[in-house]
């Protein structure tokens, strides 16, 4: 399994598109000055993936930061998501244009369905709009978030284009092996949101032992675990020192025993909503 060797290194999606394996998440970054500084700092450090969503209400800030950076648009991989209340064919197309305008770009690298909800027909119609945007070249890749295996099976049974990415809550207390294994089988990339579990695992003895052995922080150990699992990570921080720390993942390697011990921490414990129950906004 390929593992990124630097911040610009990529995984290849099922349509051949290169996606950075490490990016910056911007959830809850709504202070314009603070968020702009964080995004620009990340881009200067070498980050090339920025993950936002219409729900986050900061697409305009992300667009400004990318435009103000020294990078060309094609050097930054931009992801956003359609929110639940905007799902459906016509609503999705309208929401996409709104996001595109706020991000100040002519195309998206990746567009994701934020949640499946409880109505299959709803996300199926949303996906039909996604396929149109993809076929027209307005989006380079399309995918989903928080889809469990049964959601993916349902979508694959009716779609023309398979999702390239499934972004899920994923950390050592919620390893999501069943979903990740299904994604591997179907040639989808798994992407972890809340990859370090909102820092709730900082005192976990196993992780601290491994961190001490490698001379790294617990967060760096968890992020490296994700990378060696072939997962894309988008840790969030507004602090440049943390953003830098979260990028220093390429000068060490976890052993098979380390990986096994981290896998054994799984509790099936979510810190976010359960996709089978969450229906907010629909």
From TrEMBL:
InterPro entries: AKR, Aldo/ket_reductase_CS, NAD(P)_OxRdtase_dom_sf, NADP_OxRdtase_dom
Keyword Lipoprotein attributed: no
Source superkingdom: Bacteria
Keywords: NADP, Oxidoreductase
Domain NADP-dependent oxidoreductase: 29-266
Family named by the database record: Belongs to the aldo/keto reductase family.
Name assigned to this protein: Oxidoreductase of aldo/keto reductase family, subgroup 1
């Amino acid at each position: 399994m390929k593992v990124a060797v630097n911040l610009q290194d990529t995984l290849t999606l099922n349509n051949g598109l290169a996606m950075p394996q490490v990016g910056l998440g911007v959830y809850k970054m709504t202070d314009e000055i603070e968020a702009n500084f964080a995004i620009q700092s990340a881009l200067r450090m070498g980050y090339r993936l920025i993950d936002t969503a219409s729900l986050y209400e900061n697409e305009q800030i992300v667009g400004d930061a990318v435009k103000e950076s020294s990078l060309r648009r094609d050097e930054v991989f931009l992801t956003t998501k359609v929110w639940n209340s905007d799902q459906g064919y016509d609503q999705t197309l309208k929401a996409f244009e709104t996001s595109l305008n706020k991000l100040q770009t002519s195309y998206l690298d990746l567009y994701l369905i934020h949640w499946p909800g409880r109505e299959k027909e709803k996300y199926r119609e949303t996906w039909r709009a996604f396929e149109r945007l993809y076929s027209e070249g307005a989006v380079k890749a399309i995918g989903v978030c928080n889809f469990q295996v049964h959601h993916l099976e349902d979508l694959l049974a009716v779609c023309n284009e398979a999702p390239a990415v499934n972004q899920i809550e994923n950390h050592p207390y919620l390893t999501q092996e069943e979903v990740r294994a299904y994604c591997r089988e179907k040639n989808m990339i798994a992407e972890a949101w809340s990859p370090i579990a909102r820092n709730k695992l900082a005192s976990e003895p196993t992780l601290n032992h491994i961190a001490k052995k490698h001379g790294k922080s617990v967060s760096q150990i968890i992020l490296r675990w994700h990378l060696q699992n072939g997962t894309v990570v988008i840790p969030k921080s507004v602090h440049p020192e943390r953003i830098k720390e979260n990028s220093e993942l390429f000068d060490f390697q976890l052993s098979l025993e380390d990986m096994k011990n981290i896998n054994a921490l799984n509790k099936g414990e979510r810190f976010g909503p359960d996709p089978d129950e969450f229906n907010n906004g629909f």
